[in-house]
Design brief:
It is built from four helices and eight strands; from the N terminus they run H-E-H-E-E-E-E-H-E-E-E-H. The chain is an alpha+beta fold.
């Protein structure tokens, strides 16, 4: 919003269906990532072994999974898109040719389960409740 400074928490409260709600990065190493994402986006990285959470102004914005065996094809960003009704969106996705990659699972940004899918062209994406994400960020 031009002329308005919004905190990460305020941005998260404005989730709408179809918007990016959560991101997960898979990398072969965490070396240099904390500095890189701090310099580029102002994020901080908290690591716990091979997993971590990126935060901005104390709010979780993305997660990190380190897999040294992932190789170039297994690394990168994965996005979770918001839906008003996850079960209904899942049914529509499957009817349109998507396949479930990972059944219901929790994300740091939502109290409700998310699902991970592969679209008919092979792209992986997730679906998570926008309302649960809004509610989680208002705590």
């Amino acid at each position: 919003m031009k002329g308005t400074t919004m905190t990460p928490a305020a941005l998260q409260k404005t989730y709408v269906p179809g918007s990016s709600v959560w991101q997960e990065l898979t990398a072969t190493s965490s070396k240099g990532l904390a500095t890189f994402y701090r310099n580029v986006l102002g994020w901080e990285l908290s690591l716990d072994g091979s997993t971590g959470v990126f935060t901005q102004a104390g709010e979780p914005v993305a997660s990190l999974s380190v897999d040294p065996l992932a190789g170039p094809a297994g690394t990168g960003w994965q996005v979770y898109l918001g839906a008003d009704d996850v079960p209904a969106a899942l049914l529509r996705a499957e009817a349109a040719g998507a396949t479930v990659i990972k059944e219901a699972h929790q994300l740091p940004v939502s109290d409700e389960a998310a699902v991970l899918l592969r679209d008919p062209e092979g792209t992986i994406f997730g679906i998570v409740s926008v309302e649960a994400a809004r509610h989680h960020c208002l705590r």
